[in-house]
Specification:
four-stranded mixed β-sheet; two-stranded antiparallel ribbon; 8 helices; 6 strands
Length: about 230
């Protein structure tokens, strides 16, 4: 069943145009003087040449007939399975956290407690019987290094066979990681000790503020998570 089209009479069209003009004039009257000047400049700069009115009541771009698609010479294929990869990427379910923030903190506390005795022994040895790393012949691994007095971004560390934990190995060499397991960065003990003394006299200095200080001293961009 075809739908009939309703055509407005000339009187209604004229009334509608008059109403639109009235609203336009009211809107223009509320504009600032600078905005009006900008609109006048746009009108006089040839903006009217961007559209074409042939008198038949339809409007369109003047150069539509001569325009060609910009991508007409580009061929898309699925030989590299790009479409399949994109589909799998879009439909891939996101990983949901299985632990709450409280459970994460509780788990971290338990992990620290498990290795606390080994960490104390490693710290006391570092203070009273420091290891000469130059004489060690064990494997070396690199970690990002944070030190308020040293601008080096990474530091080599030696594996210590007697250490059961990564942080015990780091403590024996004057550093400590921020997490009990899966250590990804090492803080120098002198940096942590300096922050501890600052917090004693000014408790308002937060960890993030301290990291801002270190980044500024070494001309490095601040990162919220290290």
């Amino acid at each position: 069943m075809s739908k009939s089209k309703t055509r407005l009479s000339q009187t209604k069209v004229a009334a509608f145009d008059a109403q639109v003009d009235a609203h336009a004039k009211a809107a223009l009257g509320k504009l600032l003087t600078g905005t009006k000047r900008t609109l006048d400049a746009m009108r006089s700069s040839g903006a009217e040449g961007l559209i074409n009115d042939d008198g038949d009541g339809t409007w369109g771009d003047m150069d539509d007939a001569d325009d060609e698609p910009l991508d007409q010479h580009i061929e898309l294929s699925a030989e590299g399975e790009e479409a399949k990869f994109l589909q799998e990427y879009i439909c891939k379910p996101r990983h949901k956290a299985t632990q709450t923030w409280v459970s994460r903190i509780t788990t971290a506390d338990l992990r620290w407690t498990e290795q606390l005795e080994a960490l104390v022994d490693a710290y006391l040895k570092y203070k009273h019987e420091p290891i000469d790393t130059e004489t060690l012949e064990t494997d070396v691994f690199q970690l990002p290094y944070i030190d308020v007095f040293d601008s080096n971004e990474t530091k080599p560390f030696h594996h210590i066979s007697a250490s059961l934990y990564t942080n015990a190995t780091l403590l024996a060499q004057g550093t400590l990681g921020p997490t009990p397991t899966k250590v990804y960065v090492a803080f120098s003990l002198r940096t942590l000790e300096l922050y501890w003394h600052v917090r004693i006299w000014q408790p308002r200095v937060s960890v993030q503020a301290w990291l801002h200080v270190i980044c500024d001293m070494h001309n490095q961009p601040y990162r919220r998570v290290l």
